[in-house]
Amino acid sequence: MYVRRLELVDFRSYERVGVDLEPGGNVLVGPNGVGKTNLVEALGYVATLASHRVATDAPLVRAGAATAVLRCAIVHDGRELLVELEIAPGRANRARLNRSPARRARDVLGALRLVLFAPEDLELVRGDPAERRRYLDDLLVTRMPRYAAVRADYERVVKQRNALLRTSYLARKTSGGRGRAARADAEGPAEGGGDLSTLAVWDTHLARHGADLLAGRLELVAALGPHVTKAYDAVAAGRGAASIAYRPSVELPDPVPDRSALEGALSAALAESRPAEIDRGMTLVGPHRDELTLTLGTLPARGYASHGESWSYALALRLAAYDLLRADGVEPVLILDDVFAELDSGRRERLAELVAGASQLLVTCAVADDVPNALRGARYEVSDGQVSRAD
Amino acid sequence: MYEGAIQDLIDELGRLPGVGPKSAQRIAFHVLSADPADVTRLATALRRVKELVRFCTVCYNVAESEQCRVCRDPRRSEEVLCVVEEPKDVVAIERTGEFRGRYHVLGGAINPLEGVGPDNLRIRELLARLGTGSVRELILATDPNTEGEATATYLALMVKPMGIAVTRLASGLPVGGDLEYADEITLGRAFEGRRAV
Ligand SMILES: Nc1ncnc2c1ncn2[C@@H]1O[C@H](COP(=O)(O)OP(=O)(O)OP(=O)(O)O)[C@@H](O)[C@H]1O
Ligand SMILES: [Mg+2]
Ligand SMILES: [Zn+2]
Questions:
Q1: Is B62 a member of any domain?
Q2: What does the pLDDT look like over A250-279, one tens digit per residue?
Q3: Mutate which of B149, B157, B158, B160 to test chain A, going by most A C-beta atoms within 10 A?
Q4: Domain shared by B113 and B26, yes or no
């Protein structure tokens, strides 16, 4: 798979730009702040409907404009697919596939398979568990787009259940006549939301969607693990072995049970933690509290690994995702944003070798000399609001 | 900002659901340049909807008299009752032509984030209707999204002990969606293929 052309209107710093890309290597060069990452961010958005840098859409629309448009021509198995997205913050995005409107933007998921490594990925190793859960869930959705719905459903149920627990918690805390009403009003949800009679209903749905998500993640981690170990070894050349493990917030029997047994385990855990949850006003068990542990040698990477090791680990997680998707049978697009400047020359050469066979590779850098010669290919010069071929 | 009346109209239109500031402005200027008779008709329709439309005392659908058209129709079966969230869902289901029973409009779905619990919906009224004994099947046609599913589960838990068959519309409806946006064919099929819960 490769992106043949990308067009942006009012996306980030670009008023209007079009870039023709090549299969194989593409190197984007330009000084800091000129808009290189903005380009690859746009491709990431087409693939995942989210930015790898910001959680909301507002910063993606060019300052002063109301909507942004992304147009991306993707070639896969000799056929071309045109994906068009309109980003309008505060409203649902609109999408078209080959010029016909999609029922919902989510329908474009799966059209572009892409793995993006960016400096922000250091957070995969150093950041909160939420970063690693997002890494897993994003990959899950890339492999099987139906998980976009599973994930959205699960997150919505947790939100609703937390609102219920919080409202009843606040009502109890300020119990007694007028104080209660005043407090509930000030905090948003009115009294009706705090009726714990519906808690059992939310438990049922949390366990159902949670089991679905959990099963997906467990399967994913089992498949991904060997690729992480291999990728880290390739990047770091034998300096300690990397291994990953999924650590659920709910105790699971060994070997890992099937979906319906997972649902049972989640239900049981919810029943057990119910008093604590009512006490604290939030949902304490479920996939939204799970962790992906990263180990280097015998020590956890988080809190122990050096800067360079953490960096290599983050890169290995992305390369492993790339390998796994490839093993699934579709060659994804690989993007390395600002990677080579961080590596010593040995690691640069090894990485270049590792990714040289990609069906399409996009590399950004501020200094052209940082990119190893092995990665020759199309060159582009990025200057303010413009992208031009430079070879 | 415009002066006086035109800005008042823009502000009022902007308060409507789904109308942003730009659309509000466009509609306002459209009204300004429209034929006076058309504008009078629109104003009358707006006034009449508040004056004349009431909620059916049986099913809480919108009605122009004590009872809505469905509840007044003696040919509709008393044995099958279909629970929906909003009056607009009644319209969507009527369009399919599949359903010959009666409705019960809840007035929303359980939604703790918005402060809506079972007491804020017409659930007590539903249970009272079921208590009369004429209903044999209850069809849960709440929206196929998180809140609609939770409401359906809640109702199933309440109603099953009463010995009434409880069914849910078949999947195939767009998940995470609104019933009203499902096309007639999809919604019709969902009706035919409803399953016990
Ligand atoms: N919504 C927006 N509207 C206008 N300009 C924006 C918007 N969002 C970001 N920018 C501008 O885009 C520029 C950043 O672009 P980008 O992150 O792509 O740089 P880069 O070429 O990757 O730089 P570096 O080499 O430092 O990574 C900044 O100058 C920023 O002000
Ligand atoms: Mg950058
Ligand atoms: Zn009626």
A1: no
A2: 988 777 788 899 999 999 999 999 999 988
A3: B149
A4: no
